[in-house]
Amino acid sequence: MRRPLHLIICAALALASPALGAGLRDENVLTPIPTGFKLGDSVNQGAMTMAEYVPTRETVDHWSTMITVQIFHGQGRRDPDGFASNLGDHWKGACPNGTAVPVTRGAENGYPIAVWSYECPLNPATHKPESMWIKVVSGADSLYAVQYADRQPMNQALIRLAMIYLRDVKVCDTRRTDRACPPGM
After folding, report:
1. Which pLDDT value is given to residue 15?
2. Where in the chain are the domains?
3. Which of 59, 74, 82, 139 has a Cα at 20 to 30 A from 106?
4. What is this structure's pTM?
5. What CATH number was assigned to the domain covering residues 5-179?
6. pLDDT tens, position by position, 3-35
């Protein structure tokens, strides 16, 4: 089974689908899953949880677009930019002529965030181009990483889709009014 480049180098990443039901508790990552996507795979490995979402007619082995949500439980307060940079080093090592570029950093809802862009002109494992963006959020309880990947060369339309998607990824905490979760969740 061949794994996409971003999963090979992020082997220990995580998720439990964010808000799949009412009654959120404690700290949560809210990740919208686009219409037409399904859960392709999920993994719990110790302190790491991961879910991979692909278009409904695709699989995690054969995909055109993939959303990966990763939670590193107990890893809160880590530097999100450092995490993304380290991932970039692995990305460039696994992909000849690969790039990893910071897009933005700052804070959202009181949490430090970093967004990075990664491009692989030709993934050696799949012989296809691969473009990926990641939003890393340093929570108080956990570190959250959400990836938007596509198997096409980077272009303006794709960048726009990825940025719109990642803009809607949020972390919130039911225990704190200054980091409150949206009403009705």
Report:
1. 34
2. 5-179
3. 74
4. 0.87
5. 3.40.1000.10
6. 333 332 222 232 333 433 457 899 999 999 999
